[in-house]
């Protein structure tokens, strides 16, 4: 910007023409907003003066532009000039004579002058606030600090000088509140004290109410930055004033409001005053004069703030707060009928009151609607009381049974008696919160499912009461009330359905109770029908009603709805034709759910009473399905609804099916609807009511020339859309099973080729689906199956050698090879050779380094090949081939395969081939009895004992020996036990033999091995246990396997094993004690098992876990790891004893000097911390306990945070998991984290300010950077805790450590961006799943 341009602007800005002045001021604002703006000192002075002059311009537009210029100008001029600008503004606001009027002059001139000064002061105050806003956004630290000091000092002076001038005092208090809100942390302690005293004096003085409220706002904002002692100087006088017996009501209102706002501002720091504040708030609420509802509201709002911001300190006063909330929930002095009906709100006693005739209900509702009193503010009291109940429920889920009993009946009773619509909405929200907590905490009461006092049992008893009360609200004239009632009902059904699903899952098929009682449906239908037929045009009400109806249809038995399908169907079908797409889409989803009501059992015919509703449903859905000019969501919902209708009601819609399938084929060919159409084809192909030929040809819309539906689906396998390919494979498999002729002609080779191309190690899920489809093709009769086998064999073998073939994909691959042997004309020998060659190639690649990057993936590939070889060798097709060749049976084919593999083991030179052959022998041995082939066990034992064998070959030999033993336990187990006993002097060999034994026991203890578990009888179990206990003093790796074997053996014989293990918890050997507690961890599995009762009975498990107090650190670590495993797999086993175990666990988190050794290495000394691994295990255990919902409530926050504080300052290996744990705790218990923030930021600051040595190597630098990122992620999570912005300790740490260091600031910004991207990605993933 040139000097000439400035001169031009300055000339115009002083013009008498206001248009010139306006344009010049606008140009100046535009220039000030440029980064390149720069002027000399003289021009700075002139600009500051002219802007101050423009503030007083008679034109309001110009003065407003001048206000906008102020902030930009203060940041662009030199700091001394900006400070001078601040002083002049302060003088305009708080300067001038105290009296306000001059001594001379007439009255009119004096009044005019006073009015002008007031206008100047007001615009100057606005300008000063705007300047503060700009300084907070982008000012330098020094300018912000200096400006803060200037404004605070001048405002305090003005407050003292103009204490009798209400206008000046009001502006000063406004600016102080603005200053504190933006720069309160920059005020020195002495200035904070002066500001506090001035605001407190203004608050407690005799000034106007408006001034007291402004002082209240400033005081609440200042409280955040005050020290604890200084905060006491605010809270103490307020509480003392409230304790005075003669306090005036208007002052009492102000003081209570101040206490409430201060408590919300400072959060947990207010906890020390609650013992006085809570009784005072309740007392003033009770003693408030008649009609003083404002005081009652302020008292209840203060109580709500105490619960929300200081939940831990409010807990001892919970009963008093709850009683006050319930008392004032019923507060309605202007409605006498409330007293008469009060019995109706307290639980089931209200049935008589609610069972009155509909005419009376409508009359009562009309009276409530007609009641009007503008002076009645009692609704604010009831609203505040309702919000207290919501806060109590959200903050104290552990006290839910008591809260439920006390509050639910009262809240439900307010459904009918509440006259104010806004309060009724809060009541609905409170009931929804209560129901949500019942659902969220249902798992905590699983052990006491039969306890009538559990929230789940209480809710089951109250369901009818809630439904009846909500059903009455569905007849209300207010759409908002009806939507709120539907929201409560949705929450109720969702909770009941979730509880019923959990009960059914835990009942082992015993039949759980229905999610929704039968009486509920009859009560709700009239209200639902009224909402569906609503003529007011309120689409939100219809959407809510349809959504609830769909949820109810899914949760209630179909028989309950069958009497109402005609009435409900009419409403739903009418909504299908609505113009608003969201209503139509939700109605179509309801139609899809109604299909199951019309025909509950697919095998049974449509009930005669439901047959008349089939045609209307079809017409409504078909009208939407055939239309093209509609929203995408409606199209997809119409496709899904029609597919469900055709699949379940196909025989009733036989004449219409061709037209339906033609439209679906069109949607299949449309890019925007093809994914939903593919899923619809899958649904139709799975139904016996849809003719296969009709389906394959798309109702005649796709002939054999283009392949019909199968051809379209095959073409989708080459698309880039992964979801489309997955859905197409599922649909093709269903179509191949339903109607094999659909793949006649050129479709079959094209489908096989496309599916075989997807079989690989790139995408495991796609590979599994493609293999399943190929298996389905090969199962088709006639030449089609052989053609599919011929085309798919090569790709299947390649997948068997791929590392991606594992888990579910590997099981499908085994089935694929069995089907391939049955369908193809080639012998199983050729397929075996193909598989073995693929496995050897993978091993050779690994040996030469070609697959070095894959590491263990090549080993996994060989395991995959071995399982496929075993499946092929033991398949029925192989047995049939052996019989056809004149063999004695299936065993001859197995024997031939075993002989071929044995020759490889004995003659192969490369370890890879030997390993593959041994793995194959082990898998075959596990599936077939090889007792007639003793050479297998001998070869495996020899390879295992050979001193020169590579490690991977010996491990494969262990696997082979275990597999052979599994095949015939009684024949091979004695030999295996003898080898283990004889290998005591060879630890490595003993370890491998124990691995083989572990393989046997683990397989028998698994559900799949239950058929053979009886072969390991009591006598054999005694031998095995004695052998294992004898090996407990072996090398560490052997002890780990021994512990796992003992644990798995306990699953088979708990009565023998557990007492023996428990007896050895007192053994003198630390190795023995560590082994037995590790064994218990292996005995706790994540499925119901008989061993659970043995562990829980008599506190057996707790006796093991109490070894956390053992004198040996290895035993303590084993016990901590065992607690982690038990809490993860079966939290119910440790829940009752956790309070006694936690002190022992917390003891393992502290650094112990007696476990630190100093090794003298000559030039320097090295510290070795033997307790590090124990502390890492302890914090990992705490992490697991915190993640487990039923156990989290049993963690006392104070002790938990004390341990966490210690870990945050520990070794780097301990800090990282502690950062993660603190992040989780900030999300689940933010109040406790804020309470300890002052202590927690100390180790965090130490971590962030740690500096590396100048000679640090790259590994140390990388570890340091990882630690900084971990710590900053933790800091970012703390910054998002509600109330963190008002936590002085955390904000000081954030400002002085994180944001003040450029390097840390940049890393912190990167961490924030990563979090935002992750949240956006998660939201996108949820949206995709929903779609």
Average per-residue pLDDT, rounded, comes to 84
Structural class computed from helices and strand pairing: mainly alpha
Order of strands across the biggest sheet?
A: 1-2
Beta fraction: under 5%
DSSP summary, beta strand count = 2
| Total count of helical runs of at least 4 residues | 67
Shape: globular
Biggest β-sheet: count, sense, barrel?
2 strands, antiparallel
Low-confidence parts lasting 5 or more residues at pLDDT below 50? 98-105, 337-372, 507-513, 850-855, 882-890, 1326-1331
The rounded Rg comes to: 39 Å
Helix residue percentage? over 70%
Please describe what this structure looks like.
This protein has a two-stranded antiparallel sheet. 73% of the residues lie in helices and 1% in strands. The model is unreliable at 98-105, 337-372, 507-513, 850-855, 882-890 and 1326-1331 (pLDDT under 50). It is globular. It contains 67 helices and 2 strands. Helix 6 packs parallel to helix 8, helix 20 (378-395) runs antiparallel to helix 21 (400-417) and helix 35 (708-716) packs antiparallel against helix 36. The chain is mostly helical and 1331 residues long.
Short structural summary:
One of its GO terms (biological process) is SCF complex assembly. With about 1350 residues, the protein is mainly alpha-helical. It has 67 helices and two strands.
Question: What does the secondary structure layout of this molecule look like, with pairings?
Answer:
Blueprint: H1 3-13, H2 18-32, H3 41-54, H4 60-76, H5 79-94, H6 107-138, H7 141-161, H8 166-183, H9 189-204, H10 209-223, H11 228-243, H12 249-266, H13 274-287, H14 293-309, H15 311-314, H16 318-329, H17 337-340, H18 351-354, H19 358-370, H20 378-395, H21 400-417, H22 421-440, H23 455-473, H24 479-506, H25 518-532, H26 539-555, H27 558-561, H28 565-576, H29 581-598, H30 614-626, H31 632-649, H32 657-668, H33 674-685, H34 692-696, H35 708-716, H36 722-738, H37 747-758, H38 764-778, H39 783-801, H40 808-823, H41 828-848, H42 856-873, H43 876-884, H44 890-907, H45 911-927, H46 934-945, H47 951-967, H48 969-982, H49 987-1005, H50 1018-1030, H51 1036-1052, H52 1054-1063, H53 1070-1083, H54 1091-1096, H55 1100-1105, H56 1113-1129, H57 1131-1135, H58 1138-1147, E1 1156-1160, E2 1165-1169, H59 1172-1187, H60 1189-1192, H61 1197-1208, H62 1212-1228, H63 1230-1235, H64 1237-1249, H65 1258-1279, H66 1288-1298, H67 1302-1330
Antiparallel strand pairs: 1-2
Helix pairs in contact: 1-2, 1-3, 2-4, 3-4, 3-5, 4-5, 4-6, 5-6, 5-7, 6-8, 7-8, 7-9, 8-10, 9-10, 9-11, 10-12, 11-12, 12-14, 13-14, 14-20, 16-20, 20-21, 20-22, 21-22, 21-23, 22-24, 23-24, 23-25, 24-26, 25-26, 25-28, 26-29, 28-29, 28-30, 29-31, 30-31, 31-33, 32-33, 33-36, 35-36, ...
Pfam families: TIP120 (PF08623), TPR_CAND1 (PF25782)
InterPro entries: ARM-like (IPR011989), ARM-type_fold (IPR016024), CAND1/CAND2 (IPR039852), TATA-bd_TIP120 (IPR013932)
Protein name: TATA-binding protein interacting (TIP20) domain-containing protein
